[in-house]
Amino acid sequence: MSPPLASRIALVTGASRGIGYATARALAKAGAHVVAVARTQGGLEELDDEIRQDGGSATLVPLDLSDFDGSARLGAALHERHGKLDILVGNAGVAGPSSPLGHIDLKPWTDVIAVNVTANFQLIRCMEPLLRKSDAGRAVFITSAAANKAQAYLGPYAASKAALETLVRVWANETASTQIRVNLFSPGPIRTRMRATVFPGEDPLTLETPEQVAQFIVPMCRPDWNETGKLYDYKTRMLQSFHVPA
Ligand code: NAP
Known about the structure:
With 246 residues, the protein is of the alpha/beta class. It has 8 helices and 8 strands. The chain has one domain (9-240): NAD(P)-binding Rossmann-like Domain (Rossmann fold, 3-Layer(aba) Sandwich), CATH 3.40.50. The relative contact order is 0.14.
């Protein structure tokens, strides 16, 4: 029997470590050809080695996602090579400064917004035509509970994830009558470099791993996943709907 994602093309951003790395590996294990994007070549090569050992395949794309023209070039290259995209996992993110708003300069603010929001907007713009070419285009974006908690001292991060959530929900509404399904995934506290940077006093061994989370992201990428415009909250294992005003 062929694996569930055989012959599907999956683009995963932030695939050099953490949740993106584990998700890319799990998608490849399920049969997808993974297009892995991040800046750190070493992390991408390690991923490639592991995917090959598992019998899968990947294309490595060393790219800074705040180079928005780079994402456009990637879209054109995918079009030329595959003519479609089946899965988009918008996972890359940065935590930004841990400070009160009044102590944060404009530059760290714009850096966080560039990666967490604008880069995903650009991906939506560049990848939608390719996802429409798929018989079952699936997009999952990784958000954070910080968005709704308006978490103190993480202002740029919280605001960026709130903006991302709205952007993704708008796109879900716009694509509702197509074959594309667009959803959010909120992992909660997970053992990654980002989490350790923001909460250095926390014992990482008390946290769940990226590999555990990835097992819940993969089903949202499958052709038989039919929900759209929903948020999967990993901590509660609940699929949440958003209130749509009449
Ligand atoms: P992580 O280990 O720091 O990984 C972040 C990934 O994003 C890396 O692969 C990094 O690659 C990539 N990235 C960052 N800036 C980039 C850029 N400019 N261009 C391309 N790639 C870039 O963090 P993580 O915890 O796995 O986070 C993954 C996602 O989960 C993020 O969206 C985060 O907000 C979300 N999240 C995490 C937690 C948690 O507890 N870990 C909780 C809630 C939400 P390079 O540095 O190699 O470019």
